[in-house]
Every structure is written in C-alpha cells, then in structure tokens.
Amino acid sequence: MKTLMIVVVGLYTCLLLVSLVFADAGAAKLAAARCSGCHSTDRICARLGARTAEVWAQTVQRMVSNGANLTENEAKTVAEYLSTAKPGAKPLCQ
Q: Which terminus of the chain, N or C, has less C-beta within 10 A?
C-alpha cells in the first residue's frame, strides 16, 4: 500500500510538471503571436526579469486597450507568463 501511494504521488508530480511546461510554452507562443503584430518580441524580451507582475499586468492591459487581440483570460495568462519568464526565455526570445 505504501509503495502504491509513492507511485501515485510520483506520477501526479510528473503530470503536474509536464502540464506546467506545456502551459508555459503555450503562454509564450500566445505572447509571441499576439504581441508581435505591433512590435518585435525583442522589445518584450529586453524587459523580462526586470518588471514586476503588477507592471506586466498594467502593460498587457494597456496593449489590449491599444488594440491587442487578447481575451481577458489570455491577457491574464500572458501577463503571468511575462512576470515569471527569465531573460532569453524560449520560444518567445529567439
């Protein structure tokens, strides 16, 4: 029974990590697709790691008000991704 619990917890942890990696990649692709319509991703990548989550949220909301094609949920996802992405993060920063 103890071995079964260890296996179940281990599998759950692996699935959680895999889902986080795919979610992160999806958010990066979403940011690249929706933001690069108006400016290069170099502009975004130059600021990764230097802005707070609050500043990224404000920036994304400003871009939405300027015409960025993002739903409310997508804007939240992009802002969360940008606030945690490290400088040079792939696939956003090529």
A: N
